[in-house]
Amino acid sequence: MLQYHWIPDTNIVEFTINGAISRKQFAALVTEVESKIEDYGSVDLLEEIRGIGNIPLAVLWADLRWAVSHWKKIGRVAVVCDKDWVEKVVEVMQPLVAMDVRHFELAEKDKARRWLRDGID
């Protein structure tokens, strides 16, 4: 399941992954994020990963294509997750992308929000 919401009066979109993600859910998230890019010029994302279920290859491919085409419009990404392997992926990914990507534990979700909002660690 993929749920998302916009933090009013900011350019921040939060979304939570907990299980499988469908193409329809991914497309709805992309529509929301693109709407905020239009409104604010760029967007910051908080991605909370509770659990990862089945994600069709077409969704992964669409995600990669979308991310590559929007790198310059994404400022910060906070990945909030207690899974060690996700933290490792974030560490490897950070030097390869234009956006600032950081990992936070689930208990640090408020800290992640502050970092996105204020740029403060």
TrEMBL record:
InterPro entries attached to this UniProt entry: SpoIIAA-like, SpoIIAA-like_sf, STAS_dom_sf
Entry protein name: STAS/SEC14 domain-containing protein
